[in-house]
Amino acid sequence: MRTIVEPKERIDKLWGIQRTDTAVTYRMMRYVIRVDHNGDVLLHNVITGQLVKLDQAEAKLLEKLPATFTPLMEKLIEHQFVVPNDFDEHQRVVGIRLILRKLADKQEKPGINHITIFPTTACNARCYYCFEKGVKPQTMSEQTANEVVEFLQKHYGGKKLWIRWFGGEPTVGADRISQICEGLHQRGIDFSSKITTNGYLFDEKMVEIACSLWNLDSAMISVDGTKERYNRVKAFVNACDDPYERVMNNIGLLLAHKVHVNLRMNFDKQNYMEFKEILDEARDRFSGNPLLDVYVHQINGHYENVDSSLIQGDEEWFSEKILELNKMSRKMGLLHKKSELPRLEYKWCIAARDDAVTILPQGQLVSCPERMNPDQYKGDLKHGVNNQDLICFWKQFADYERCRDCCLFPECVKILNCAGKDRCFYKLERLDQIKEIVCNLADSSADEQ
Ligand code: SF4
Ligand code: SF4
Q1: Nearest-10 crossing angle of helices 204-212, 174-186
Q2: How many beta carbons lie within 10 A of that of residue 178, not counting itself?
Q3: Residues 6 or more apart in contact with residue 110 via CB below 8 angstroms
Q4: How many domains would you assign to the chain?
Q5: Ligand 1 pocket test target in 93, 323, 404, 408 with most atoms within 8 Å of CB
Q6: Domain boundary among 331, 354, 369
Q7: With 80 as the cut, is the pLDDT of residue 276 above it?
C-alpha cells in the first residue's frame, strides 16, 4: 500500500489505530470509495481523508472480502479501510463529530461574524417557485439599519464580518445596504459581502457603490432560461426594457469590476434543455472569464403546468441532470469551482452556528434564512439572541437510514429541522468529482516517483 494523500492528523488521532484481531471476519469499511484507474485500485477513506494505492496482492484480497484475517490485511486494517463485520462506523462518525464540536465550542472566540441581512422582503420579480410567496413585503427602516450597525458593533467580537445580502430582492433596499455599510466603515469594522440578487436593478453607479462601499466580492444571479422564457418567468414589475438583456449587461459590469458572479439556472423539466444555450451565450459574452461560474440548481417544491402535468423531476431525475449539466459547463470552462476530497465534517450550517445570525427587515433575529415565521424569532437587535429553546432546536443532527450506508455520510452534515434535510440531489455529481480528483492525484503522484 502506498499513501498518496495523508490522513487528517486530528481525525486520525481521534479514531486511533485499529488493532488486528485474528479471530474476526473483516469487510470493507462503509465509508471508503474505491476507484479503479489504469489497472490500479485506489481507496479513499472518507473519514480520515487518506488516499492510498494498493499493491496487486492487496487489490486481489479485496475481491475476497468479507474474509478472516490474513497478514496481507494488516495495513488495510491499521488504516481502517477494512473493519470487523460487526463494527459500527456510523456510530463512530457520530461520536467523533460530537467530540470535534465540543472542542470547537471551547476554542472558538465568541462573536457573531456570519450575518445574513434582509434589507427587504419585497421583490421586483415574480418567480413562480419563490419560497417566500405569501411573505409580507417589508423594507428595513433607517432606524432599524442604524440598530443593525449597533448590534454588529456590539457582537462582532473584533473579527472580520462576512455579510450576505438576501431578500426579497436586496437591491430594492439598496439605500439600507449602503447605510449599514457606511456605519461599519465609520466604526472601522472590517467586512466583505455577497449578494443573492436577480441583478436587474444594478447599473454602472450601483456596481461602483457595491465595490467601493458594500465591499461586494460575489453575486449570485439566477438566469432561468433563454431570453423569451427568462422575461416570462421573472415577470419583472414595471419593467420598461428587456430585462434579460439588462441582467446580462449587469453581469458584464460586475465582472468588469472584479466581482465574482455565480450565474445559476434554477431548473425543472420545463427549462433544463435551455442550459446549453445559456452556456453558449455566457461563453460568447464573457469569453471564459474566470470570475464567472455557470451552474444549475434544482427547483424545490411541487409545481404543475397549466395542463396539470408535473414539471418537477424526482430526486433521481434531478441528480442525473445536475451531473450532466454541470459537467457540460465544466467542459466549456464555465464552471471553475474546485472541490476537494471528502473527509469527516462536523460543522453545522449557519442555522445552528453561534457565530451566525440572520437579520430580518424589522430587526428580528432568526437562525435559518428560509424560516422567517414569528415562531422562529430567537431575539432582536436590541436584546440579542435570547431564545435558548430555538438555539437547541437548530442543533440536532438528522439521522437518516439511507445516509448511514452512503459512502459520503462522513462529510454530509444534515440538521434535523432543515426543510431540505431529506433532499439528496448532489451525490452523483460529488462522486463523479471525487473520482476525477482521485485519478488526477494518482497520475501526479506516479509522475513524481
Ligand atoms: S444526503 Fe445523500 S450524499 Fe448525503 S449522506 Fe445522505 S445519501 Fe449520502
Ligand atoms: S435551509 Fe437548511 S442548510 Fe440552509 S441554512 Fe436553513 S437549515 Fe441550514
Answers
A1: 30
A2: 17
A3: 157, 354
A4: 2
A5: 408
A6: 331
A7: yes
Q: Of all atoms in ligand 1, which is nearest to the CA of residue 414?
A: 1
SS3 of residue 52 by DSSP:
strand
Q: Report the run of H or E that residue 429 belongs to, with start and end.
A: helix 427-448
Q: Which range of residues forms the domain containing residue 203?
A: 118-331
Q: Which atom of ligand 1 is nearest to 406's Cα?
A: 8
Domain harbouring 242, CATH code: 3.20.20.70
Q: Do 187 and 287 belong to one domain?
A: yes
At 293-317, the pLDDT tens digits run 999 999 887 666 655 666 778 899 9
CA 243 / ligand 2 centre spacing (Å): 30
Nearest atom, ligand 1, residue 412 CA? 4
Q: What is the pLDDT of residues 3-33, one digit of tens each?
A: 999 999 989 888 888 889 999 999 999 999 9
Q: Which tens digit of pLDDT belongs to each residue from 151-170?
A: 999 999 999 999 999 989 99
Question: Are residues 165 and 56 part of one domain?
Answer: no
| Shared domain check, 154 and 37 | no
Instruction: Please check whether residue 124 lies inside any domain of the structure.
Output: yes
- 91: its cell numbers: 456510530
**In a shared domain, residues 20 and 69:** yes
Q: What is the pTM of this model?
A: 0.91
Q: Distance, CA 222 to ligand 1 centroid (Å)? A: 26
- Model confidence over 197-227: pLDDT tens digits? 999 999 999 999 999 999 999 999 999 999 9
d(CA 190, CA 208): 19
